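README: folding subset

This subset contains proteins for which both the sequence and a predicted structure token string are available. Records are stored as plain text. Below is the entry for Sugar acetyltransferase (214 residues), shown exactly as it appears on disk.
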Amino acid sequence: MSLVRRALGALIHRAYGAIRAAGEISPGSPAGYRFRSLGPGVSIAFPPGAIFGEQWIEIGDHTLIGERVSMSCGMVPGPDLGPDSILRIGASCSIGRGSHIVAHQSVDIGDDVFTGPYVYITDQNHVYDDPDMPIGRQWPRNSPVSIGSGSWLGTGAIILPGTTLGRQCVVAGGAVVRGEFPDHSVVAGVPARRVRGYTPEQGWHTPVTLDSIP
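--- output ---
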């Protein structure tokens, strides 16, 4: 019986591997042609998450998108979002499984950006200006997001509208990030703040802030 189970298990794993390989989205696959641009070597793993608005998505060479990663432009499939790309992911990136990237105006991710799983990046947020109207019915507000090349986003990080991360930044797992952070920042916390920085003169150091002055 154990021999039969081992043989059946091996067959199932081989079949699943073949399904994943066949279901991968790449520049030459039928689904790949729906994107504005997929560079050579791009791989979007099977099974994918929710993907729509592909004609406004650009992905650079040799970028790997993990399984169940959702990428969307606009609120729903179908509307014309204009002539320009809205979601741009650079070359040689790795986006962790289960992550969500939601773009309505502009999300720009540089080259060599790596993320852990379940990262959430969006350029749109709900508003609550009218205290008498349900928040979900109030028209949301957009603000562009930019993530600099060479950055790392830890597991479960949330990048909110209006965020600009410089080059070679580190975002700690679970951080909720909004605002502008210069190159070589280490960002952590809820809400996130810059906890380390780098200069050629000081190397890696803890930045002096008003909160740290006695």
